[in-house]
Hints:
- By secondary structure, this protein is α/β, with parallel strands linked by helices.
- Helices cover 47% and strands 8% of the residues.
- The strands form three sheets. A four-stranded mixed beta sheet has the order 5-6-8-7. The protein has a two-stranded antiparallel sheet with strand order 1-2. A two-stranded antiparallel ribbon has the order 3-4.
- Helix 3 crosses helix 12, helix 4 packs across helix 10 and helix 15 packs across helix 16.
- The relative contact order is 0.14.
Amino acid sequence: xxxxxxxxxxxxxxQGPYSEALSAVCADLVSAELGLFVPCAxxxxxxxxxxxxxxxxxxxxxxxxxxxxxxxxxxLGVAVRTRNLLNLDLPPPVWKALLAGREAAGRELxxxxxxxxxxxxxxxxxxxxxxxRDIPADHFEALFPQxxxxxxxxxxTEVELFPGGRAERVTPARRAEFRALATAARLGEAAAQxxxxxxxxxxxxxxxxxxxxxWADLERLACGSPEVDIALxxxxxxxxxxxxxxxxxxxxxxxxxxxxxxxxxxxxLRFAWGRERLPLEADFTEQSEMKLFPSNxxxxxxxxxxxxxxxxxxxxxxxxxxxxxxxxxxxxxxxCREINY
Length: 341
């Protein structure tokens, strides 16, 4: 979509810097310093689903913030149209809202969507005891003596569920009303931000085309899968200059990659290609296939792997053991997280 040049840093071609720039922009968008997105409640508490996902910060409503959300939506559109996937971890309710629009989002989202991002809040709204039974009316006020018609949003902001709600107690007879209002408030807490993101998205991808997609389709097209599928990568790897799939050090290489967790696999992709997501199976091209070459610096135990991110090239020394392959590969991918070769 555009060309990127890093001043003062060496690179060949344009794909590598472009991918690196996209990865850096995505990291900035969800950074605490920028304050546009925050970890969802499940991520902050380490419970439930989507523990690695971010949601728009409800209080990010300044004009500059909303302009940034519009830009984020445009980036999603660019990713869909160019197939350069973004490293943005957003939970299903965000994708559903982006696809449905502000008016329809309330119909599309329900209690299960709240559960997917804030399990603790969802559990509290059930008003059940530890055995899953409804709390009797005669115990309700003892257990919830201070509960009024307010709720806390993901960023800790407390809001009234209706004007004067802070002064009204939740009684057993009104618990269903409270649950409905609190659920609606939580699911709609970032409506302004998501509306700007959607506006940015449809400025790049025509709205009638979005109508053909499910929320899961939109996530896959814009961001791919957060999981780095090693079998998929292996199917789309080519071997050059005497390196073959049967070479002993290549067997060590695939064994090490298979043993990596999600974070290390993403670091490897960032090191080798400047991005952290693989294309969908149908979207692989010659440019997006990994190429494995021998090292230019020999096969010593302390020679590190090299990468050329513009061409998805990795140059591997012929390490004698799996342990050497793992140690040196980890050293390379953790020390070289930014393009500069």
